[in-house]
Amino acid sequence: MSSGIYRSAKIIWDYHLLQQSLVKSDCLFVLCSNDIRVAEYAAQLFMKGYAPCIVFSGNVGELTQGLFPCAEAEHFANIAREMGVPNDCIYIEPVATNTGENIIKTRELLMEKSLDPQRFILVQKPFMERRTLATFEKLWPNKTAQVTSPLLTFDEFANDVISYGDMINVMVGDLQRIRYYPTLGFSTEQVIPAEVWHAYENLVAAGFDEHLAAEIPR
Questions:
Q1: pTM to 2 decimals?
Q2: Who has greater pLDDT, 214 or 152?
């Protein structure tokens, strides 16, 4: 990629990544995707004692069509089991297809199980940390949450499943949602520095618009 695209993408990556320090909580809440490193990282957190249970949420999304033989949540749960997480500590929500549904459907699942965790650790991809936390804060405001992700740098993240192009498109789309979703009641307000929005405009102009939501402004 050109130096200008790299610089703009790195600015947005740094904005999305919150780098919160973790404390032990009641539940690990994994928002599933096409990146199995998130499942592996969540399992590692469980094995280190950060929470006594894990819930995996996710059906099949745009980026996981045909990638796994089952719902994202089921595939991630299988990875966690293989890494030593006991089956009775795992809960699976296999219906949600977006971040808001991840939270709503997980809340419903835990209520059905008569579970009422107060503190959550949200586990997500690095460049989706900020919107994940903002969505949780809006849709489940009486709970406490932190967000974390696999410890990967911008330069380390892309692999044979997720290209730099895919990553940048998602980062740009998430920033658009961070700006406009609060007015729709989907997430809490976030301050977006001018430098970050300028980077967004540069990337949209360069053609990274595949993940933009059509129903809201660019």
A1: 0.94
A2: 152
